[in-house]
Amino acid sequence: xxxxxxxxxxxxxxxxxxxxxxxxxxxxxxxxxxxxxxxxxxxxxxxxxxxxxxxxxxxxxxxxxxxxxxxxxxxxxxxxxxxxxxxxxxxxxxxxxxxxxxxxxxxxxxxxxxxxxxxxxxxxxxxxxxxxxxxxxxxxxxxxxxxxxxxxxxxxxxxxxxxxxxxxxxxxxxxxxxxxxxxxxxxxxxxxxxxxxxxxxxxxxxxxxxxxxxxxxxxxxxxxxxxxxxxxxxxxxxxxxxxxxxxxxxxxxxxxxxxxxxxxxxxxxxxxxxxxxxxxxxxxxxxxxxxxxxxxxxxxxxxxxxxxxxxxxxxxxxxxxxxxxxxxxxxxxxxxxxxxxxxxxxxxxxxxxxxxxxxxxxxxxxxxxxxxxxxxxxxxxxxxxx
Length: 386
Ligand SMILES: Cc1cc2nc3c(=O)[nH]c(=O)nc-3n(C[C@H](O)[C@H](O)[C@H](O)COP(=O)(O)OP(=O)(O)OC[C@H]3O[C@@H](n4cnc5c(N)ncnc54)[C@H](O)[C@@H]3O)c2cc1C
Known about the structure:
The protein is an alpha+beta fold. The chain has helices at about 10-20, 25-35, 40-45, 65-75, 85-90, 95-100, 100-115, 190-195, 235-240, 240-270, 280-310, 315-340, 350-360, 370-380; strands at about 120, 140, 145-155, 165-170, 185-190, 200, 210-220, 225, 270, 275. Strand 9 and strand 10 form a beta hairpin. Helix 1 (about 10-20) runs parallel beside helix 4 and helix 10 packs antiparallel against helix 11 (about 280-310). The longest helix is centred in the middle third of the chain and has 29 residues, at about 240-270.
């Protein structure tokens, strides 16, 4: 469906044409077997779309976050799911902003071509959850290496990555001045790590989403794979979050339009009591309201993206865009499912698949409550609650 807010028609057309080669039947079949969309990710990579944010000097296309967000929006709007590969776009930002020249030269060009996939990010841990600064995985320096012990959970796409960005504690919490200190970021080369101090156990989950428990038992990471300064990793990770929030907001917007379009089409066609169900305002209004909210959240997504691309502070806007868009896509998902009645539950209509996929964004990569607490504390100057 079209929106007057649609920008970058050339990007939309090209990405839309690529997505057209991977119709909903493709995603549905993969969903049944919980298989990775390898052919789709390969095509998106080869067309250069996943290297959108990498500067041209490193072989990427050097586009802004606005254009990048349009790419992922189109994937979700076509009925697909960007979560299979969106991280390839933004995880490299940590190397770009904080890596050494040598790391940038060594990795970025090969990430841009897709020869290397850097789309795994190990932050969340089973016992500490959202309270990131309490994470327990340690990396202890021994000569020219760091030795890692600990555990991560929900580390997505590890089995389809060559590199993982790992956040681990290098100074015990008790010895730090501030709770964000003492954490460091490492680039783990998965080909040599798995089976040599690192083990991966897949987590079967609600969607077709490749995600894992990861165990470290003496994994050795060369000291040259430390990104930036030791002890400043938490700040580096925070730096990347605005980009992630804006891109996820765009995916939600794409989902939202998909649900609204599907719901409207079905409501026009489905005849019950000798008239299209869409003639009933009880059916129309939830779809119309969902559309209003998708459009409104889309405005906030563009606003956050614009600030980001101008290099201006955009933490509040990026968080608000993500919250509004995740809420709007979830509302649209509910309206779409309800409009389809019983058929909404049938896999062949794809509504239940997209419904499951868009539900994730209420929780990951950041839960709605945590965004509200950010806005309360940092925008409204309310007392810190934790
Ligand atoms: C499919 C999937 C893929 C993921 N991929 C990745 C990945 O690639 N890398 C990665 O590092 N992580 C990943 N995650 C983890 C994700 O970021 C976390 O699940 C999310 O941040 C929430 O953390 P948690 O699950 O530990 O919940 P918890 O921190 O245990 O929180 C549970 C609930 O309590 C609420 N809550 C907690 N504290 C407060 C508070 N102070 N005030 C109000 N509410 C509160 C939360 O909002 C949440 O709803 C993924 C998760 C999923 C489900």
